[in-house]
Design a protein that fits this description.
The chain is α+β, with helices and mostly antiparallel strands. Helices cover 39% and strands 19% of the residues. It folds into 3 domains: 65 residues, no CATH class; 27 residues, no CATH class; 31 residues. The protein starts with 5 loop residues before the first helix and ends with a helix.
């Protein structure tokens, strides 16, 4: 898996490249641009055509960095949730990756009992939230 410092080096590298990218880009930049590890989200108050130019530029800026992106006024995926604009706030909802296998911790594993015992409760609340969303 590599050195324990690898994620830190990767974050430093991407942060450095992002600073250059934002400095070199001459078009309309997002009003909000936030990154956590390898996941980026943003928001802008401009036309969709103007906004599309930014991720296109970012995707071709450095040969070792690849960005996949989507633009939506309804909801935007970030980490394991959707960010949903509502009036002057941002609501969230949980999202699941298409590759999620829904495999859970084996109760016979050597994890602490408290960790294992919380799994059914968590699943009940998650299922109840999913049912409310429809």
């Amino acid at each position: 898996m590599g050195s324990k410092l690898s994620p830190n080096y990767a974050c430093l590298f991407v942060g450095y490249i992002e600073e250059q990218l934002l400095r070199d880009y001459t078009g309309i930049k997002p009003d909000l641009y936030k990154r956590y590890m390898n996941d980026v989200t943003g928001a802008a108050s401009c036309t969709k055509d103007d906004l599309t130019k930014f991720p296109t530029f970012a995707s071709s800026y450095h040969p070792k960095l690849e960005y996949t992106w989507s633009i939506s006024s309804a909801k935007v995926p970030f980490l394991d949730m959707y960010l949903i604009p509502r009036d002057d706030r941002v609501a969230t909802s949980i999202t699941y990756n298409e590759t999620d296998s829904y495999s859970y911790l084996n109760f016979k594993s050597s994890r602490p009992l408290k960790c294992k015992a919380s799994i059914p409760t968590n699943q009940i609340f998650t299922t109840a939230e999913d049912m409310q969303r429809g």
